Amino acid sequence: MIAVTVQQRDNRIHSLTLEGHAGFAKHGEDLVCAGVSAVIFGGINAVEELLSVSLQVEQRPNESGYIRADVPAGLPVDKEANVELLLRSIISSLRTIERDYGKYVSIKISK
Questions:
Q1: What residues form DSSP beta bridges with 109?
Q2: Which member of 21, 68, 79, 88 is catalytic?
Q3: What is the spatial distance between Cα 9 and Cα 89, in angstroms, rounded to a whole number?
């Protein structure tokens, strides 16, 4: 299962963490894993490309299926609001996948 954890502070997203594999199909044919990967990497890339904000991204080479993206501190208010909007769109897309494939994807929002 892919576990998505969203950390919030003051009702703002502070970080997104994804861990695990969907297990929907064998490696290379797992549409759920591919969909989740496309959403998270596309979203991170959109933040960087459209807003010129580099999220602090951690991937663990020895832990396949792990990625964490942290919002940098001290962003200008307008950029922070736009980053928040894009991150919420990532979560919205992931919720759609969770709705249809809840056995393989779980989203937890921590405050």
A1: 6
A2: 21
A3: 18
Catalytic choice (33, 39, 40, 69): 33
Find residue 57's DSSP bridge partners: 69
- Per the annotation, the verdict on 33 as an active-site residue is yes
pLDDT (tens digit per residue) in 15-54: 999 999 999 999 889 999 999 999 999 999 999 999 999 9
Residue for token pair 């405050």: 111
Question: Which string of DSSP letters, residue by residue, matches 14-80?
Answer: EEEEEES---SSSTT--HHHHHHHHHHHHHHHHHHHHH----EEEE-TTSTT-EEEEPPTT--HHHH
d(CA 85, CA 26): 34
User: Is 21 one of the annotated active-site residues of the chain?
Assistant: yes
